[in-house]
Amino acid sequence: MKQIAAFLLLCALSLPHGIVAQRSAARAALEESVRLAQEGDTARALGLIERAVTIDPGYAEAHFLKGVYHARQAPRSTGDFRRRIIAREALDQAVRHDPENPLYLLELARLLMMQEIRVDARRMLRRALDVAERADAPTLAEVHYQLGIFSETTWRRLRYRRLLPIGIAELHGDIAFESANYVWDVLQASGYAPGQGAAAREAMLDHFHRALTANPAHIGAATHLLAFYYDTGRMAEFTAEALRLVRAAPSEPRAYLALGLGLHAEGRDDEAAGAFEYAVELLPEEVRADFLAVSRLLTQDDAETFEARAGADPADAARRFWTAWDPLYLTPSNEYRGEYLSRMAYVDLRFGLPEYDVPGWRTDRGEIWVRYGRPLRQASFGGGETTTVWSYGRNGPVFVFRGLPGFRGATFASDFRFYAENYRARQPARFTAPSLPALLQVPAQIARFRGVDGGIDLEVYAAVPLDSLREAVGVAAATFETGLFVVEPGGAEIRRVTEAREVTFEEGRALPMNWRTTVPAGQPHIVSAEARDPLSWAAAVHRARVDARSFPAGEPSVSDILLTRSLEVVTDPPRTRTDFRMVPEPSLTYAPDDEIGVYFELYNLLPDSNQVASYDLELAVTVEEIHRTGSFLQLLGELADRWGLSAEGDQAVRLTFSKENRVQARDMLPEYFTIRLDEPPPGRYGLRLRVLDRNARVELEVEREFQVREP
Length: 711
Description:
- By secondary structure, the protein is an alpha+beta fold.
- 41% of the residues lie in helices and 25% in strands.
- It has 24 helices and 25 strands.
- The protein is elongated and about 110 Å long.
- About 4% of the residues have low confidence.
């Protein structure tokens, strides 16, 4: 609506002063209508326009503004014929009373294009061009821009036009809704007609270039030209045009969004981030909030929860979101946020209708592109009404849109809005980044123990399988950047430990990454173990959210379970972790015949009058994904001699034992044992430890999962 009000104001200010003097009452009504439209009171604004027409039926400007108002409202619904009829009648009257006004001819041509009356639209545009050749440069630029739009609607309709394979008359939307394979196979078997749309494409480019020659700051012509360059992969021309637009229109946010989009496509994330941030600052406040709203990336339920929690500080909520979604803390930029901003910039270039107050991200196609990126295959079918199909792979998803080319837009076909929302619930968003050609997700084991001064000793064990990165790196040896990052959800960095390490790519070799650091207790953390080759940009990462944990002084508690590949006592009796020789297992994955070392610590158990702590331990191994076929659990070492064993249950094997330990001045008791599962089937298993402090009558519990792989 503000775009309409601004357009009305521009037109009103350009009215000839002689006519204003003769028609002061009608003029006053029009001026008041512009003011009301700017304030959002469109009903009263339209009433005053009608009054001006009644006062002076020959007043071309009044008819024109009436036509503009109805024409700009009509595209919100392809079935809104009443508004288009009213707009057509009003604009015909305006042209009849002032046939040499290029603005009138342009608006009528725009409406005719929307109605798919293309022959008359072209005739009006040619008349407008003849008049504009004698007018000022901005008017000439606008006419060439509209002629470019006219040719563009033809070219875009033909660019993805598919020739269906022999024997298939049409792509059936109901089958497409049910079967992604059907769509993929049809598109694979179909082909493009050679050279289709070439003439329309060249005419489009010629008019956009002529518009920019007449008015270098013409945003419409520039953005449509940029969209063409981006879609066709002409990135050198895209970047050059974006830089030219920045110089010509330094206060236009879309210029900097385009520049950021080009830089992001080249993998220049740091420079792209600067362009995007400047563009965001230039956006009007209400548009900025909508542009940055990350809830569109979540499921509907999660989006509602996110917005409710954001409350009065959505900026802080967004920072927390992007902190969690930063794929690599080793780099200064957030690659996924850059990808999000680049998609938002692209859909506004490609699908936005600024003349109707519709940004690209508020269109159906823009909504899907922002969530899932460029489809793997695109196709269009049909004559008058165009069906557009986007396929993201053989297994989907598939989205189908329909629209008339004259509307320069499309909406979900039939039930595909329901399909999109249903898929959103399962797959909220997908992200990749040009600057991360290989991003390997690696397993890691994270364990928390009590640290000094009330802190948490955080131990992280990860191993990067170098075979997976060999092809991306492409050399026999490389210098990797490695790092451990502990970050608050709000984005504050708590710990950063980085180093450069020489890596040789040998068959079957892994890059171990082990850290021990102390972090504050009582708050959740994001823990990230990362490795990156700065030359190839190949990277590996393990990202985990570690929940709040503390070991309060004087209260019984138990550490996390640490699972090891090997475990033996160095000093007997052991008093601290340094009295053990342990090799933790980063992947938490074992072969069926492997020994599994289990280590944990007990804190502040209550001693009796003889300084003896008495406690029961219960260890349960449960099958999480498959049924256990092994017959029993074997306990190795001294614990088998000291404690009795009992196995019970079909889905779980339990060890139960009791122990007494003289604590004296110590308030930490290290516990350990080694287990072997008797030929368990591959799958995911749970390890649950329960501790009962018999003196304090307090029960503690901690869990850990592990995998058993094929032999």
